[in-house]
Amino acid sequence: MSIADNLARVKSALPDDVTLVAVSKTKPQSDILEAYNAGQRIFGENKVQEMVSKWEQLPQDIEWHMIGHLQRNKVKYMAPFVALVHGVDSERLLLEIDKQAQKHDRIISCLLQVHIGQEQTKFGLDANELMALAQKVKSGGFPNIKIKGLMGMATFTTNEAQVSTEFRSLKLHFENLKEILPDMDTLSMGMSGDYKLAIDEGSTMVRIGSSIFGARNYPV
Ligand SMILES: *Cc1c(COP(=O)(O)O)cnc(C)c1O
Question: Which prosthetic group or cofactor does it need (predicted)?
Answer without folding.
Answer: pyridoxal 5'-phosphate
